[in-house]
Amino acid sequence: FGQPSRVVTPDSQLITAVLRGDAAQAEACLHSGANPRRPREDGLDALSLAVSHGRRGVLGVLLRHDAALLTACDGAGRTLVHLAVAARDATTLKYLLGRWGLDEQACAVDTVGNSPLHLCRGPREVWLLLLHGSAAEPLLEAQNLSGETPADCAARASGGKVSEARRALLELAAVGASGPASEQDTQLFAFLRRSHLRRQPGGGGGEALRCWCARARPADLLLACSVWPLAGVACAVPLRFAAAAACAAAAWGLYSRCRRPRPSLREEGRRAALGEKRGKAGVRAALGLFVVICGVCAADSAVLGVLMRRLPACAACWTCSVVAMLSLYARVALSGPGIVASRDVDAADTARAYWSALEACDLQQAAEAFCLRSEARRPPRSRFSPMSGALVACMDHDCLWFARCIGEANHRSFVAFLLCAEAVLCLPLAGLIDTLPTLGADLVRHWPSALPPLGEGGAVALVRLAVLFATVKLILVVWVTVLLRDQLRGIWHNVTTVEAIDWLRRSDVPRPTPARGPSAEWSEFAPHDAGSLRNVVAFLRGRRSIEARRRRPSQHVAQAVGMRTNGIATSTAV
């Protein structure tokens, strides 16, 4: 009606495709002769809009079509890194630094002398990527044509003080140098091969997968082997001397711990990165559990003769349970948890798949399809185990008492060990309590003639030692029963320990386990629940991770692992 009709050109169609995030249409426009550098009325072209709006799928199409666009600048002389920083888009900034290697643009300046640091207004991830995400070292005191530093620009934009902005900038620049970087900060630099804060991916194996007995030190073995002899000596001496010795030992241990010099933050961070502290604690805990198991079995075998005469069936079942428990203990301690083998030929294939996935989703969604610690594809229900240093299929938890990760490969043996341990602890306990009043006389009567006679003092010491063993066994019964209950409940509902812990951490307040039923809360707690019978069968067959792969993934995970998104087919299918 009197107004001129707007002419549709390939350039205008390209800009429309960029704003919609339609990579297929953008690629068709490029083949039709569209120019991604031709600006529209407001001076913005398709390339600048793709970076500013976070259209990484379209941005990848543009950069693959013409590699010269990597060094393109807008009318103000701003590079692609300038535009990503100004848009406060950490995902696009990481994509440009890691996928296209635009490290030198982290220090580039525009026509007024502003570097990307001058334009940065947050968030924290953008600051960290600029300072540590590439091989470049941006100058914190660099001045633009107006004589302003990045701290001056940040203080002017936020309305704060320059001194506070400079202090905050120096703290961000010192991440990883003055102290250990947090886990979230470290995972931010995954797949950024030129970043000095990138953690070397763990592939598992080596020292982390060796049995704890191969990693134990002689001092730990000597300390563990002296526990029960010291307990015997404590039972033989009067109670007041034993109590005084125990108090003195506790005081000396507390004094030694207080006098021990605390390591520096840098040393502590390096040890945490290497997992030495966790490894030593796991070895000592596993050694302590083994010593307790041996002591309990030795104590029960000492009264086995008495039990055989009074409860012969209980003694026979106990003997079979001990043999099964020790064999299962060795199986769990020596077998691997089920390390996820990489399906890629080399790490470059995984990196290309990660950057392709990042074109379709953001950092948080891509982390569900890729493990940022091991830099590998993440199959469903797999987790990274700090104790094994690798990605574990259907990981349940890192067991400190075995110094071993419990995963799909050894989870059945672990649960069977708990069942046998419950039988070993409970079967002779009733007989031991029943025979406790006459245990001293029975032991004196049936004491081997080849050994020196016990006497009255020896019988009293043996009764005290039996009481000590009964107390330890009661504590172990409670502990094993609670642990076995949680494991059986997880098998019944098809929920692992780490999944239950993650569900609890999603809420700021403690919440009970939801009731089983067709509710949103139960689906969030047990998303892999397929019915009690199917859950148990999948666990017994060791196919919990395989059954999880058959389930349809969520939309953004499907995009990240290889579905066709915006006309781009990636090769990252799990």
Concise account of the structure shown:
This protein is mainly α and 574 residues long.
Question: Residue-averaged pLDDT, rounded?
Answer: 77
| Annotation field: number of helices | 29
Secondary-structure-based class equals mainly alpha
Oligomeric state of the chains present here = single chain
Rg for CA atoms? 32 Å
The order of strands across the largest sheet is: 1-2
Which stretches are low in confidence, meaning pLDDT under 50 for 5 or more residues running?
261-276, 448-452, 552-574
Q: How would you sum up this structure, described in words?
A:
- The protein is mainly α and 574 residues long.
- Helices cover 58% and strands 3% of the residues.
- It contains 29 helices and eight strands.
- It has helices at 10-20, 23-31, 46-52, 56-65, 80-86, 90-99, 116-119, 124-132, 150-158, 162-173, 183-188, 212-215, 218-225, 227-236, 239-259, 265-274, 276-302, 304-310, 312-334, 347-358, 363-369, 411-435, 439-445, 455-493, 497-505, 520-525, 532-541, 544-550, 555-560, and strands at 370-371, 376-377, 383-385, 390-392, 397-399, 404-406, 564-565, 568-569.
- It has a two-stranded antiparallel ribbon with strand order 1-2. A two-stranded antiparallel ribbon has the order 3-4.
- A hairpin with a 2-residue loop joins strand 7 (564-565) and strand 8 (568-569).
- Helix 2 runs parallel beside helix 4 (56-65), helix 18 (304-310) packs across helix 19 (312-334) and helix 22 runs antiparallel to helix 24 (455-493).
- It is elongated and about 100 Å long.
